[in-house]
């Protein structure tokens, strides 16, 4: 097995220990999961025995860090105060629960400013994060790079940098780069991955980059659509992913597939494909 930290999004429906077993069955060494129902409902209480078995398996197999994902319904910069309040409360609860599996990552979509403008959106996101983050917490919170669909905030590296600048405990903040989203946002990772990483480094700082989402895109560069495609079947193409999994600046980062598949076998095949490309490069 190559040293890639690679996996996909998995379901918690059968419990956490079952999720770790799923990961092992498909050759995953990291994975993502929703901290609660993706539509944003109530979180189930963590079962002590299930969690203990889960943590033991992660330790034995050297799986992780994991990249938990907040539900899409959270919007820290909604125009509706009750929506903002819900997002803050839910994130606080999620992060409190994450302390029971310390040392992992928690990724969220910065939000949609819904006609309030990006400046107000960024202000509200910072205010929310400053209320939610607990100094000394064991979880790093990641801003996801967004495609720029509608009024999404986080469509450029500059917007992400401005959010980070406004967070008091910025040592708790990182970025998760989604390959579909950055291409949809207009960053040409197909022809110039290293140039895009240079720009990220200049604007945000590469040390902030803590995880990747690996998705091909159904749409062309700069389309602002956010429609994921299976690896190699979209406008990014296989060679882009070869460049990603062999880039020394991305080595060691957890990489999570969010491609449209109908079952675990599809992700197992993508994981094997990407590991194969990494191994091929390292044997030359
Ligand atoms: Fe996401
Ligand atoms: Fe993503
Ligand atoms: Zn997406």
Descriptive notes:
With 284 residues, the protein is of the alpha/beta class. It has one domain (6-282): Divalent-metal-dependent TIM barrel enzymes (TIM Barrel), CATH 3.20.20.150. It has nine helices and eleven strands. The chain has helices at residues 16-25, 48-61, 81-98, 118-132, 157-165, 179-185, 193-203, 238-246, 264-282; strands spanning 6-8, 67-69, 105-108, 111-112, 140-144, 152-153, 173-178, 209-214, 216-217, 228-229, 255-257. The strands form three sheets. A seven-stranded parallel beta sheet has the order 1-11-8-7-5-3-2. Strands 4-6 form a two-stranded antiparallel ribbon. The chain has a two-stranded antiparallel ribbon with strand order 9-10. It is globular, with a radius of gyration of 18 Å. The site of one fe (iii) ion (FE) has 4 residues, from loops.
């Amino acid at each position: 097995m190559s040293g890639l930290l690679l996996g996909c999004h998995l379901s918690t429906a059968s419990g956490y220990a079952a999720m770790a077993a799923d990961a092992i069955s498909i050759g995953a060494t990291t994975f993502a999961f929703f901290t609660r129902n993706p539509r944003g409902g109530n979180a189930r209480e963590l079962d002590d025995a299930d969690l203990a078995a889960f943590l033991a398996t992660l330790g034995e197999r050297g799986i992780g860090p994991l990249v938990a994902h907040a539900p899409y319904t959270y919007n820290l910069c909604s125009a509706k105060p009750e929506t903002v309040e819900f997002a803050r409360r839910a994130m606080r609860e999620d992060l409190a629960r994450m302390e029971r599996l310390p040392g992992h990552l928690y990724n969220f979509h910065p939000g949609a400013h819904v006609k309030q403008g990006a400046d107000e959106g960024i202000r509200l996101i910072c205010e929310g994060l400053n209320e939610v983050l607990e100094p000394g917490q064991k979880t790093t919170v990641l801003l996801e790079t967004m495609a720029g669909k509608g009024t999404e905030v986080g469509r450029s590296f500059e917007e992400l940098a401005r959010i980070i600048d406004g967070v008091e405990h910025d040592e708790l903040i990182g970025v998760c780069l989604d390959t579909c989203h950055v291409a949809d946002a207009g960053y040409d990772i197909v022809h110039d991955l290293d140039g895009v990483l240079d720009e990220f480094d200049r604007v945000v700082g590469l040390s902030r980059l803590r995880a990747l989402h690996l998705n091909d895109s159904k749409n062309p560069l700069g389309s602002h659509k956010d429609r994921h495609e299976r690896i190699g079947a979209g406008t990014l193409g296989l060679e882009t992913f070869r460049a990603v999994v062999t880039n020394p600046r991305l080595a060691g980062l957890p990489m999570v597939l969010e491609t449209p598949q109908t079952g675990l076998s599809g992700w197992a095949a993508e994981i094997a494909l990407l590991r194969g490309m990494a191994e091929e490069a390292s044997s030359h």
